[in-house]
């Protein structure tokens, strides 16, 4: 028995040993696995900490860059606004004196009392003033487009007539220069379209003008093709052409190419810049190709759809009026610049308007109450109270819908949203275009204008159609004419004119007195007396 036990012992020992070895091996593996796991967890933790640190650093850096970008953007915006303010300011400063120059030049040019040889000089003043104005306007246009402030004034336009006018104008220019001008139309033009006529003319006149201007021999061909609501225009010339290297530059502001440098041809270097910007803003394309020495070809592609309208569009141009029918109307001019007020007075008083003046918004409100104007012509930038506020007070406090035109040198303000609700169409930019002003006034007051130059020599007023003031009034007027007292005459005419029925008589007389045609006034009165 003991022998059997002894024989089992080594086996048991071996068995235990195996189990022990197996357990030791297993626990070794487990320990190793635990060590490995915790090690890898530590490594992972470290890695994740590192990534988090990196991310946090990146976030801090991003914040810094964002803040820097924000600052840079603010600086750029401020610089841009400062540039716009500068351009607006300088344009205002230049426009104000130009307003007087061009306004008086227009008045003098229409004055038959001035001898013909002097008209030539007046036209030189007008032309130079207009060139200056085109520079200011060009720069303003660019600033306006760049600042996203340009709005199109879309109106119904008879398109074939519009193109025909351009053709006639450039045919004449080309003929005067001794080069040819051909016009070719493919397809049928839409009868009426809705466009900003001023802006489309600006583009076409500039490119056609350049073609005629730079071409010395040969000619210019103007091809218009309209199909499927697409307008394709090509303007080709046999001028000096444009070097390839110059083609990109000529669209830059103030850049004038070799065609301009090699000749003494005038220009501003702004035309193509504006034309391209405007075409693209209208959703079109402006392209150019050229062979130096042979000529250039400009192409314009524009989407343009026909508008079907029943209403008739007013296209006829109005001759310069000298008076208007019906009762006397009152106009209040609000402007802090005395010269500007005087200019408007000089334009409007001779036509028979009763005028009042105010030098700022506050004065305007006072005069408004007493004078009860039919129309207010309002400047914007004025001390004490500006034009916007005065307009707001008239509309909202006085609850009045008297027509107000903003007459301002600050073209940037045109179309600005304002609390007085004055639309862009009631905005007249200085220098005031007399016809534009009169057209606006005529529309607002439904005036029937009397046109044509009144006789200055032997006045022959059709007595039958004329209502005359009483003999006593006429005699008084005659006495003043005989002594040559113009202020007295003006006052007397105002007095007679208070009764609306003598309006035509008063307007005719006033026109003559404005021109100091006292002899003609005397003759007219004598004739009237004879006829009665
Ligand atoms: P401007 O005509 O006032 O100089 P533009 O911006 O209209 O300014 O034109 C810029 C330049 O492009 C011109 O100075 C001229 O060198 C060149 N250019 C424009 N049109 C033509 C053309 N038809 N032929 C040759 N060169 C042209």
Outline:
By secondary structure, the chain is α/β, with parallel strands linked by helices.
Kindly report the spatial arrangement of strands forming the biggest sheet.
Answer: 2-4-5-7-6
State the oligomer.
single chain
Q: Biggest sheet, open or closed, and with what strands and sense? A: 5 strands, mixed
| Small ligands present | adenosine-5'-diphosphate
Tally of contiguous helical segments: 15
Q: What are the SSEs and their pairings?
A:
Blueprint: H1 2-109, H2 116-146, E1 155-158, H3 159-177, E2 180-186, E3 192-195, H4 197-214, E4 219-227, E5 230-237, H5 244-247, H6 258-261, H7 271-281, E6 285-291, E7 295-303, E8 321-324, E9 330-334, H8 338-348, E10 354-358, H9 361-371, E11 375-378, H10 387-397, E12 404-408, E13 427-429, H11 434-445, E14 449-451, H12 471-483, H13 486-497, H14 503-514, H15 518-531
The structure holds adenosine-5'-diphosphate.
Adenosine-5'-diphosphate binds next to helix 4, helix 6 and helix 7.
Descriptive overview:
The strands form four sheets. This protein has a five-stranded mixed beta sheet. Strands 10-9-11-12-13 form a five-stranded parallel beta sheet, sandwiched between helices. A two-stranded antiparallel sheet has the order 1-3. Residues about 310-315 and about 455-465 have low confidence and may be disordered. With about 525 residues, the protein is an alpha/beta fold. The chain is elongated, with a radius of gyration of 40 Å. A hairpin with a 3-residue loop joins β6 and β7. Among the domains are: about 155-305, Heat Shock Protein 90 (2-Layer Sandwich), CATH 3.30.565.10; about 320-450, Rossmann fold; about 465-530. Helices cover about 55% and strands about 15% of the residues. The N and C termini lie far apart (about 175 Å). The longest helix is centred in the N-terminal third of the chain and has 108 residues, at about 1-110. The protein contains 15 helices and 14 strands. Adenosine-5'-diphosphate binds near residues 256, 260 and 267.
């Amino acid at each position: 028995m003991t022998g059997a036990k002894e024989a089992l012992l080594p086996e048991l020992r071996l068995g235990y040993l195996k189990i022990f070895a197996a357990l030791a091996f297993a626990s070794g593996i487990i320990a190793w696995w635990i060590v490995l796991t915790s090690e890898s967890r530590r490594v992972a933790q470290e890695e994740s900490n590192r990534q988090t640190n990196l991310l946090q650093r990146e976030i801090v850096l991003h914040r810094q860059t964002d803040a820097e970008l924000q600052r840079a953007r603010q600086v750029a915006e401020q610089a841009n606004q400062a540039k716009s303010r500068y351009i607006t300011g300088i344009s205002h400063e230049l426009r104000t004196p130009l307003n007087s120059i061009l306004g008086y030049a227009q008045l003098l040019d229409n004055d038959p009392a001035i001898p013909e040889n002097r008209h030539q000089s007046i036209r030189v003043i007008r032309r130079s003033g207009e060139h200056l104005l085109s520079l200011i306007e060009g720069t303003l246009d660019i600033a306006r487009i760049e600042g996203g402030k340009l709005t199109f004034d879309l109106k119904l336009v008879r398109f074939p007539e519009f193109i025909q006018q351009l053709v006639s104008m450039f045919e004449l220019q080309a003929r005067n220069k001794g080069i040819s001008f051909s016009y070719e139309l493919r397809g049928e033009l839409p009868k009426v379209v809705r466009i900003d006529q001023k802006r489309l003319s600006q583009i076409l006149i500039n490119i056609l003008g350049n073609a005629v201007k730079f071409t010395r021999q040969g000619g210019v061909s103007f091809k218009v093709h309209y199909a499927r609501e697409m307008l394709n225009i090509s303007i080709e010339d046999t001028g000096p052409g444009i070097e390839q290297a110059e083609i990109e530059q000529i669209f830059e502001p103030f850049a004038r190419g070799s065609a301009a440098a090699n000749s003494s041809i005038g220009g501003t270097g702004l035309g193509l810049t504006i034309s391209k910007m405007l075409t693209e803003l209208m959703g079109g394309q402006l392209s150019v190709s050229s062979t130096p020495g042979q000529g250039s070809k400009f192409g314009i592609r524009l989407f343009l759809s026909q508008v079907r309208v029943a209403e008739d569009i007013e296209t006829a141009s109005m001759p310069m009026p000298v008076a208007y029918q019906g009762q006397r109307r009152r106009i209040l001019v609000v402007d802090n610049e005395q010269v500007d007020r005087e200019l408007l007075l000089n334009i409007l008083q001779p036509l028979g308007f009763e005028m009042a003046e105010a030098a700022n918004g506050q004065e305007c409100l006072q005069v408004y109450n007493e004078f009860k104007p039919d129309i207010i012509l309002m400047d914007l930038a004025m001390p004490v109270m500006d034009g916007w506020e005065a307009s707001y007070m008239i509309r909202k406090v006085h609850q009045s819908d008297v027509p107000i035109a903003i007459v301002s040198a600050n073209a940037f303000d045109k179309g600005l949203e304002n609390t007085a609700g004055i639309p862009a169409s009631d905005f007249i930019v200085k220098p005031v275009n007399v016809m534009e002003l009169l057209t606006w006034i005529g529309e607002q007051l439904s005036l029937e204008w009397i046109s044509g130059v009144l006789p200055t020599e032997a006045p022959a007023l059709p007595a039958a159609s004329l209502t005359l003031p009483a003999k006593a009034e006429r005699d008084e007027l005659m006495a003043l004419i005989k002594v040559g007292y113009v202020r007295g005459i003006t006052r007397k005419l105002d007095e007679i004119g208070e009764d609306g029925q003598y309006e035509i008589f008063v307007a005719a007389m006033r026109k003559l007195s404005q021109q100091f045609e006292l002899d003609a006034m005397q003759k007219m009165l004598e004739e009237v007396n004879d006829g009665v």
